[in-house]
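FAQ
Q: What does a multi-component entry look like?
A: The components come first, one per line:
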Amino acid sequence: MRTIKLALRNLFGAGLRTWLNVFVLSMAFVMIIFFRGFLSGWDHQAKHDMIEWEIGESQFWQETYDPFDPFTLNESHAVIPKQYNQLIEDGKMTPVLITQGTIYPDGRMQSVLLKGISTRNNVIALPTDMLDTEGEEINAIIGTVMAKNSKLKEGDYVVLRWRDVHGTFDAVEIKIAAIFDCDVPSVDAGQIWIPLQSLQQMMGTPNEATILISGVDHAEEAYPAGWIFKSQHDLLSDIEELIKTKSIGGSIMYVILMLLAMLAIFDTQVLSIFRRQREIGTFVALGMTRGEVVRMFTVEGAMHAVLAMIVGAIYGIPLFWFMATKGIAFPVEATQDFGVALADVIYPVFSMMLIFGTSLLVLITTAIVSWIPARKISRMKPTDAIRGKLQ
Amino acid sequence: MKKITLIILAILPLITLGQYPDGKEVLDRIDKNMTADRTVTKASMVVHGRRSDRTMEMITYTEGERSYSEYLAPAREKGTKMLKLEDKLYIYSPSTDRTIQISGHMLRQSMMGSDLSYEDMMEENKLEDAYDAVVTGEEKIEQKRCYILELIANKKDVNYYMRKVWVDTERYIPMKEELYAKSGKMLKTTILSDIRQVDGRWYPYKIAFKDMLKSGEGTEFIVEEISFNKEIPEHLFTKGALRK
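Then the predicted structure of the entire assembly, as tokens:
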């Protein structure tokens, strides 16, 4: 307790020098928490949106389907396994048939991924009820990115050309029934959603699908032959990898920020040990052990971190609270072209774990940096120190 | 009297049909003109764009299901090579020194900005093998009497379900062709002209393609030189030939 009191008194006594160090450290501290909170918020948002719009609880893929290999699309369809008919009937699973097509908005040729989905889908958030039609007309829904790129509006008609399962061309006019706003590019960019039954008929593949999106987890079940099970974890692994990469990239920035702050504290410690040799000698002469003096100087340095936390909290908490409630807005163009699930507004998530973890890291680093120059004290001769002789 | 008129009206189309040659026979004669075991063609392709036209020159060697093309001009495209081996299409680009296989949605893209897609290049069925043909009437195109031939696919794996071809009744060469989707929508038209006799067969030296779903003025394919059934070096139909 005595050490802490002395450390605090010395710190406050140093005045502006202490507060400059504390401010720089608090900035590093707030910036690190902010960036980690931002990444954490993006992680939460991306996963939430992907589950809601694309993934569901789990999926089954026809065994040859590979979303990154267009070579596989022609063969990637199979009859929906009978064992899932009840789940589909109950609205807990939705089959999706995927093929390629071409649209001609205003006479421009544009390749699209054509996806057929049940109009009664309630596993993912796509507004598939808008696909319902009374006549022969084929209704389609597209995302905002697709609408922007193809210059299509709600109510527009566009010629769609595709090849059936045997490779024969067919073409028909479809109506853009609705445009949905979604942050997940893998259900939006370059894609047109039409009713499953229509696509099955167009392709000549009745009752077939490419993927089955399930609202329940099938991890413990036996899978049907010809289909591969994909858990939610498998389907989210790409975004997790991306966030991890961003996080590693971000740590370089943390290191730079911390280095700057630690350099300031290290310099302060070196200077203060040099200038306070008489004081150190007096402490030892009065009966303090060298270890106690080293501890006192280390605590004094580490107290910078404690003060930085307090100062950081004064301006950081309102800032974080504001960002967590209002979010950080991104220009629409930036989010659309990013290629991964990125919302227009990201709400950073500042968990207790994140704040305590970062605080502990800063505290330990500061303590170590403060202790390194303080070790010199243990090699000082008290008599020389009292005399102020340089050592 | 009414009955007689009805009978005459019912029989009339049959009589008219009887006047025309068998569709299969017409197709056979078209195929004899248009297809050969081996062809070497030097041609230019003029793409009529919205703002300007682009002309590309190329030489193409074809043997059955295999073909090899090399672009000779303009400078930007010079050295670009295409190799079609059965159902696979490879393109070599000299600027990147890379060979890529065109597949999936890329096949549906326009070839060099023209009205032809890579898929059109892949089509190889002889008309007679893939379609049932019926001559449905006659019409004059460029002062030439033509049979109107309606072709309905008899195989499932053809690009176009229905074709309508106007065939010169004397030379048995298509003068015009319309390609339809299964739904009946017209997808492409082709107009063939400048018909000349080469190696004892008639061949169109100018073919104008138009993608009816796409805006633009279409693409012209102008044959400069063509030879049939001459030996083609085997090495041209290998991927190795692309990088030479």
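Q: Is there any commentary attached?
A: Sometimes. For this entry: Residues 58-216 of chain A form one domain.
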